[in-house]
From TrEMBL:
Domain Extradiol ring-cleavage dioxygenase class III enzyme subunit B: 15-260
Cofactor section: Zn(2+)
Alphabetic keyword roster: Dioxygenase, Metal-binding, Oxidoreductase, Zinc
Organism: Aspergillus sclerotiicarbonarius (strain CBS 121057 / IBT 28362)
GO terms, molecular function: ferrous iron binding; oxidoreductase activity, acting on single donors with incorporation of molecular oxygen, incorporation of two atoms of oxygen; zinc ion binding
Protein name: Aromatic ring-opening dioxygenase family protein
């Protein structure tokens, strides 16, 4: 990536759009899991203050958004993967930062509340456990989506929380690039617990939307990135690629967090790509990079 000296974004931690994929990504070694580990190592090396992550599997109803404040969350069970692979992982809820998020979002006019009952769901702990496989995750704050899935709303959540990057927080959206459970090829998973089998190439609609997302994320920046990501929801293949909007909201959140005027010139970089279930594209895209923030 071209790093433009003097640009505001050059002094901020990166923002990640991570496609968590199927539950098998919790235990499979893939290009994506290697990349997540690399991103985790870099965050620790730069003394990341905490992680703020928007969950694709947690929605708030009405006009609400919620922030997790459970001081002792559990990991919710997940299908296909033996529980010994994850159930002993130490979770690190960050209640002070949760309050910061509540205050920042409230000040921007969001109807936001604390949720002291939230337990971690697979979309979050796949990412956290693979980024920090040694069991040393930084303090982590989970933010919900809103079930109306308004892209401009979620863009604003990202732009509101963007300021936390100035304090060395790492912002992550966990969702999916192409993620339509109804159009996956499930048989190898059901028969053999193999999500990586590719009996045929991905279908045309999946390839086309995946390419459009890559083009938007790697070739636009700043406010143009924000406009382009929200516009992808009008892409002719959007509904094929996303049967529901939830996993795309992570991309919109990320565009909000990394698409300020000060982020112009900060293009996304494709860190890794893993296809599962024939038609599920797990793209891992990073905006910005660690420079000397917090480095020892
Ligand atoms: Fe998911």
């Amino acid at each position: 990536m071209e790093t433009e000296a003097g640009k505001m974004w050059g002094s901020l931690p990166p923002v990640h759009f991570f496609s968590h994929g199927s539950p098998m990504m919790l235990c499979e070694t893939t290009e994506s899991s290697d990349y997540w580990r690399k991103c985790g190592d870099e965050a620790l090396a730069h003394n990341v203050k905490g992680i703020v992550i928007m969950s694709a599997h947690w929605t708030a109803l009405g006009d609400q958004i919620q922030v997790a404040t459970n001081p002792a969350p559990r990991i919710l069970p997940v299908g296909f993967v033996p529980s010994h692979d994850y159930k002993h992982y130490p979770l690190t809820p960050d209640l002070p930062t949760a309050q910061r998020c509540l205050d920042l979002l409230s000040a921007e006019g969001f109807t936001v509340s604390a949720n002291p009952h939230y337990n971690w769901i697979v979309d979050v702990y796949i990412i956290i456990t693979r980024m920090f496989p040694l069991g040393n995750p930084p303090p982590t704050t989970v933010v919900s989506m809103n079930a109306r899935y308004d892209p401009h709303y979620h863009l604003k959540v990202g732009s509101t929380l963007r300021q936390l990057r100035k304090e060395n927080y790492l912002l992550i959206g966990t969702g999916g690039a192409v993620h339509n459970l109804y159009r996956n090829r499930w048989m190898p998973m059901i028969k053999y617990r193999d999500s990586l089998a590719m009996e045929t190439p991905p279908e045309e609609w999946a390839l086309e939307f995946r390419q459009s997302l890559e083009d938007v994320m790697t070739r636009t920046s700043g406010p143009q990135l924000r406009r382009a990501v929200t516009r992808l929801m009008k892409h002719p293949k959007f509904r094929d690629a996303h049967a529901s909007d939830d996993h795309f909201m992570a991309a919109v959140f990320v565009a909000g967090a990394a698409g300020d005027v000060d982020d112009e010139g900060c293009h996304g970089v494709m860190g890794a790509e893993t296809w599962e279930l024939t038609n599920m594209a797990n793209l891992q895209v990073t905006f910005g990079e660690w420079s000397n923030q917090g480095a020892a």
